[in-house]
Amino acid sequence: MTDLDDDIPQLIEQPVNEVKPIGLKPDAAVARVPLTIISGFLGAGKSTLLQRILTERHGYRIAVIMNEFGDTADIESKTINVGTGEDPSERSEEFLELANGCLCCSIKDTGIAAIERLMQKKGAFDYILLETTGLADPGPIASMFWYNEEFAMGLGRDITLDGVVCVVDAVFGKKQIEEDHAVDGIGESLRQIGCADVVLLNKVDLVSESAVTELQGIINGVNPVAPLYQTIRGEIDLKCILDLKAFSSGPDARNAPIESSYNTGAGHAHDHTDNRGPHETHYEMRGISSLQVSCPPLSGGQFERFDEWLRSVLWDGKLPSGEDRKLEVLRCKGMFTLDSGEQYVLQGVRNLYEIDVVGRKRSLGVPEDGKVVLIGKGLDEGVRRSLIEILS
Ligand SMILES: Nc1nc2c(ncn2[C@@H]2O[C@H](COP(=O)(O)OP(=O)(O)OP(=O)(O)O)[C@@H](O)[C@H]2O)c(=O)[nH]1
Questions:
Q1: Bridge partners (DSSP) listed for residue 66
Q2: Which domains does the chain have, with CATH numbers?
Q3: Nearest to 303 by CA among 342, 263, 348
């Protein structure tokens, strides 16, 4: 069984210094363009990262959308098919094809219509990066794309959600996490970190090593499964943030990261180890908790009960026992092996989730132990015990 708290920190900073061939081909069968959401609190360095992508010779043809996207209320009140009926005088967009192959798309209106117009230029780019506003909760945006992709609706026919990247300000990140306005107990900066597939800790040139270490501990506690990279002015190998396939189903889902790349055990982590049963780690920060449980191969019955448990937690916000706990899950991920040998991957954002078979055990590089990670609100001791009971 893997001892998660013994994971070796891997904090890598990789310069973008070579021109690579485009490795981001959309699946030919469906010809969908991957989309990555870039979130991050005000001033963290999102625009700097995108600017870098637009000006460096990296070999990718990326359409970068810089706009006011991220008005959650606006997005949630619309369907992905929206694109007509708005006042064109309020729209303003600019497309610029750049020397490095990127397509810069600066769009001022909110919502899906902006991306619909970008998609009229389909073929001019292989990838879309979407910057949200500093106060946006990326969860609704991610779930909207994922949901529509699943049912091949509207833009879901053309775009596939690849992942969510969160840029955190190394200077003000800790203060932002501690002070941002809590919405239902979870501030936006915590939602952004909790929802992320990758976190970039930016502006590390401006702070001490100990401040970096402390903030890393907090970020990793909130989101123990997102790889964490230190950056200066958004300098990062694009392979670390693109083509993550964090929401893919089928064999591709195997690539979705569910292992932490960093773990200090800092913050208020409580480690409960039991050699016979699942191993779990729990962390709580201003109302947001991350709960990790690793488990041995499951029986078919256990797997079914886990599915029921997940439906209750994600859809009804409570445990199957009926206790009203007001649970809110921002992200969940997992990998399981059944005692029959089949392996499954779990991915979820807000109340949407998918469990897909990815193969059989003893495949190269796939651990036999399973692991579930939940990030959200109300994931307390009772939830932990309830999950352990099912997975034991
Ligand atoms: N020293 C230093 N400054 C940085 C770094 N990254 C960004 N900056 C500066 O920080 C400021 C904010 O960066 P932006 O890229 O505009 O941040 P943002 O997240 O897009 O900001 P909003 O759009 O307001 O949410 C700018 O003045 C950048 O030049 C870094 O790694 N080191």
A1: 106, 131
A2: 4-255 (3.40.50.300), 270-391 (3.30.1220.10)
A3: 342
CA–centroid distance, residue 233 to ligand 1 (Å) = 7
Copy the structure tokens of residue 150.
């699943």
Contact between residue 83 and residue 46 where contact means Cβ atoms under 8 Å apart:
no
pTM: 0.75
β-strand partners of 291: 282, 374
Q: Find out whether the beta carbon of 232 lies less than 6 Å from any atom of ligand 1.
A: yes
Pairing of strands 342-349, 370-377: unpaired
* Distance from C-alpha of 296 to C-alpha of 372, rounded to nearest angstrom: 11
**294 closest CA partner among 264, 338, 336, 329:** 336
The CA 356 to ligand 1 mean position distance, Å, reads: 39
Instruction: Return d(Cα 381, Cα 41) in angstroms, integer.
Output: 30
Ligand 1 atom closest to 203 (CA):
31
Which pLDDT tens digits describe the chain residue by residue (392 residues)? Answer: 334 344 444 444 433 333 333 444 444 445 789 999 999 988 899 989 988 888 888 888 898 887 655 444 444 434 333 333 344 444 555 667 777 778 777 665 556 676 777 888 888 888 999 888 776 788 888 888 887 777 777 777 888 899 999 999 999 999 888 876 555 566 788 889 999 999 999 999 999 999 999 999 999 988 988 999 999 999 999 999 998 888 876 555 545 545 443 333 333 333 333 333 455 555 666 677 888 888 888 999 999 999 999 999 999 888 888 766 688 898 898 888 888 888 888 888 888 898 888 766 555 444 467 888 899 888 888 888 899 998 88
CA angle 274, 280, 285 (to 5 degrees): 140
203 lines ligand 1 (CB under 6 A): yes
Q: Are strands 342-349 and 328-337 parallel, antiparallel or unpaired?
A: antiparallel
